[in-house]
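Appendix B. Chain record.
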Amino acid sequence: MVRSNVMRGVLVGATLAGMAAFGSGTATAATADATPCHVDGFVCMTTNDIYQPTVYFAGGDEYTFWRATEVTTLSNDSSTAYCVAAEYNFTLSPGQTIAVTHTITSLTPTNAGCLS
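Structure tokens predicted for this chain:
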């Protein structure tokens, strides 16, 4: 009985030491996923697409996905407003960040907003 308690203590101690040295990873992953991307002069989108998880394009340019894509955050760090073609069209204003999931097909520069 003494031998198994000693072994258990050694294993628990080694596990705790490893977690302290390398971190558990859960806090880092949750923080990274919740942080929207920002690049001055660009529009940035975080998607649920495994092949293209982050999309950047220059302000003033138009962007079209190959297929409708689920976007979790949109950050417009450009001086151009965009019409976002999604379940319903909406305007993404300069400096605006949206952290709501939408299925998006394209973003087009606009001066007058979007028609639904």
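Further analysis of this model is presented in Appendix C.
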